[in-house]
Amino acid sequence: MLSAAGLTKSYKRATALRGVDLEVAAGEVVGLLGPNGAGKSTLTKVLCGLVKADGGSATIAGSKAGSFRARANVGYLAELFRFPGWATADEVLITHQRLAHRPADPAEREALLTEVGLAHAAGTRVETMSKGMQQRLGLAQAMIGAPPVLLLDEPTSALDPAGRHTVREVLARARDRGTAVLLNTHLLGEVELLADRVVLIDAGKVVAEGTVADLTAAHGVTVETDKGRSEHPDLARDDIAALVAKLVKAGRKIYAVEPHRSTLEDLYLRLVGDRESQR
Fold first, then answer.
1. Of the candidates 127, 39, 246, 172, which has an alpha carbon nearest to the alpha carbon of residue 22?
2. Over the stretch 246-259, which tens digit does the pLDDT of each residue have?
3. pTM of the model
4. Residues 85-142: pLDDT tens digits?
5. pLDDT confidence of 265, banded at 50, 70, 90?
6. DSSP characters for the chain?
7. Counting Cβ atoms within 10 Å, is residue 81 exposed (0-12), middle (13-18) or buried (19+)?
């Protein structure tokens, strides 16, 4: 549903994208990770047609990114968005129905507000909403017309744990309906809970990609024997049994075998480090 090949983009003082390849299939949630300035937002804007790439290609549902047909197939939530403070939640959705060239269907608006946990807020003005409520309203507008592709830039950054749980459920249901979701976020825990695959970019390049399970697969093991504890940090999971057999054959008594655990945070810090502390 979403495909990018060799995308490049430079601004006057910086290069944002350096040959990025990316694919998101129907019914798949892909988490897009990386430090500030890595190119995540630029990539998202290229895909939805707000920024023109210098090189490479991108398609949405088979149409060139940025074309009318591609934009008609995309629901987009920007990281920084602002709805008119005087408008109610229902009026915001009416406006976006019209912008999407759709009928101002009250049943659709009611269903979307219910979906994001704002059924009670149809008549609430934006200026009286919390930032988290506004963010969920933004997600509702992105889903107008049930687009086959959702591009979401930090959709849970302002939400409390209950709000993030609501959004995860919304996106899980969208995935079950066959929607392709590209989720740009700094919240690694959200990605671990929801994403089918992860793409990590740094300095405009993809530095790692794969399923959460593959990227966080355990490597290394600690073995406790009658001679004490020994560390084997580079041992692959499939080689643990051979190591245990070797120790037993050598006469060691095995008391514990503890595979080392990895997380997305471990991977992130290993590949890109703590860039914020360097700014």
1. 39
2. 999 999 999 998 87
3. 0.82
4. 999 999 999 999 999 999 999 999 999 999 999 999 999 999 999 988 999 999 999 9
5. confident
6. -EEEEEEEEE-SS-EEEEEEEEEE-TT-EEEEE--TTSSHHHHHHHHHTSS--SEEEEEETTEETTSHHHHHTEEEE-SS----TTSBHHHHHHHHHHHTT----HHHHHHHHHHTT-GGGTT-BGGGS-HHHHHHHHHHHHTTT--SEEEEESTTTT--HHHHHHHHHHHHHHHHTT-EEEEE-S-HHHHHHH-SEEEEEETTEEEEEEEHHHHT--EEEEEEETTEEEEEEEEEGGGHHHHHHHHHHTTPPEEEEEEPP--HHHHHHHHH---GGG-
7. middle
Nearest by Cα to 22 from 269, 152, 205: 205
Q: Position of tokens 């490049």?
A: 8
| Mean pLDDT for all residues in the chain | 89
Report the half-sphere exposure of 94 (CA within 13 A, side-chain side).
9
Lowest mean pLDDT among 7-16, 75-84, 218-227: 218-227
Contact (CB, 8 A) for 24 and 2: yes
C-alpha torsion sign, points 221, 208, 167, 136: positive
